[in-house]
Specification:
Layout lengths: L7 H11 L5 H22 L9 E5 L5 E3 H15 L5 E6 L6 E2 L3 E2 L2 E2 L2 E9 L10 E9 L21 E7 L3 E6 L4 E7 L4 E6 L10 E3 L10 H11 L10 E2 L5 H11 L2 E4 L12 H14 L3 E3 L19 E4 L1 H11 L4
Parallel strand pairs: 3-7, 13-14, 13-15
Antiparallel strand pairs: 1-2, 3-4, 5-6, 7-8, 8-9, 9-10, 10-11, 11-12, 15-17, 16-17
The structure holds 1,6-di-O-phosphono-alpha-D-fructofuranose.
The site of 1,6-di-O-phosphono-alpha-D-fructofuranose has 13 residues, from strand 7.
Length: 337
């Protein structure tokens, strides 16, 4: 049976008639994310032929080494939003220390939205031709925002208006939510359009797979160690041991769980309790997607969406995935088991 051919634009138009949360402005932001995703997907496909792989020799605001494609994809997002007609006021990116103002005048008014973006999540996978992604989150700019641009953008995850990601794998896939379900689109390269390939996605309440960088095991707090030990133990009644899968790309691992269930964890370490992942453009947007699909996103002691950020590049421990699996993890972390 032939599949329907609903483009992202047609889908968003339809959603606008069904859900007040899906406004024309927000739809425009998502379409610009999709545009940036198409450009990035195309550039990644032959980056090795243009000498675009490898390191720049610099470190970013996080103190991490920068890949040439980290810089290039950041530029693509900035350029894309500079051409968006003023709906978005600023971009906050993993690759830029400070928010970048992009245009910002729609009908004579300052743009209403700020977009948080991790332009190239998992970029160390590139040299091995493995999956990478882009993550985004959209907030309304606070009306109190005047002098200090950065602190005006510090809002909890529950205030997100939209979030999503683009995954550059065997196919390029866009997943988004505006709080009215999770939708997936697959890029038809021949016609350059994202076509609807999954509606109102739901994550199974429990999975059979976990994902963590187990090389860090000795650095984890005891509760996390005991949770991973539990997942590796044999128990037919609860489907253990779980299989282990870890790609080094958060988006790819979380996408696996969105479709099949399971749990991803990047915990804090005893000497680095804040963990590695970034709240505003990694944990919170993926948390919005996963919670819309019926799962959970937690630090182990607090829901990701309840954290009041204090800095745009803030780090946070993350346990995300199926509702029951994350619930179990919380019990271990909190010493209840
Ligand atoms: P980059 O966005 O800097 O490439 O980092 C990737 C990442 O934040 C996330 O995608 C991975 O799950 C995680 O880091 C991998 O970190 P480790 O190399 O410490 O496992």
């Amino acid at each position: 049976m032939p599949l329907s051919r609903t483009t992202l634009a047609a889908h968003l138009l339809q959603q606008q008639t069904l859900h007040p949360a899906v406004t024309t402005e927000l739809s425009a932001v998502i379409e610009h994310m999709a545009l940036a995703g198409k450009v990035i997907g195309r550039e990644l496909s032959d980056a090795a032929l243009h000498g675009a792989l490898g390191l720049t020799g610099d470190t970013n605001v996080q103190g991490e080494v920068v890949q040439k494609l980290d810089e290039r994809t950041n530029d693509i997002f900035v350029q894309t939003f500079e051409g968006q007609g003023g709906v978005v006021r600023a971009i906050v990116s993993e690759e830029m220390e400070k928010p970048c103002e992009v245009g910002g005048q729609a009908g004579g008014r300052a743009g209403e939205y700020v977009v948080f973006v991790d332009p190239l999540d998992g970029s160390s996978n590139l040299d091995a031709n493995m999956t990478v992604g882009s993550i985004f989150s959209v907030h309304r700019v606070s009306s109190r925002l005047q002098t200090d641009l950065e602190t005006g953008f510090l809002k909890p995850g529950r205030d997100q208006l939209a979030s999503g990601y683009v995954l550059y794998g065997p196919s390029t896939v866009l997943v988004y939510t505006c709080g009215a379900g999770v939708y997936q689109f697959t890029l038809d390269r021949g016609i350059g359009e994202f076509i609807l390939s999954g509606s109102r996605l739901k994550i199974p309440p429990r999975g059979k797979v976990y994902s963590a960088n187990e090389g860090n095991y000795a650095k984890w707090p005891q509760g996390v160690q005991r949770f991973v030990d539990y997942l590796r133990d044999k128990d037919a009644a609860t489907g253990r041991p779980y299989a282990s899968r870890y790609s080094g790309c958060l988006v790819a691992d979380v996408h696996r769980f969105l479709t099949g269930g399971g749990v991803y964890l990047y915990p804090g370490e005893i000497s680095k309790p804040e963990g590695k992942l970034r709240l505003m453009y990694e944990a919170a947007p993926l948390g919005f997607i996963i919670e819309q699909a019926g799962g959970l996103a937690s630090t182990g002691t607090q829901r990701i969406h309840d954290i009041l950020p204090t800095a745009v590049h803030q780090r946070v421990p993350l346990i995300i995935g199926s509702y029951e699996d994350v619930g179990n993890a919380e019990e271990f972390v909190q010493g209840k088991r």
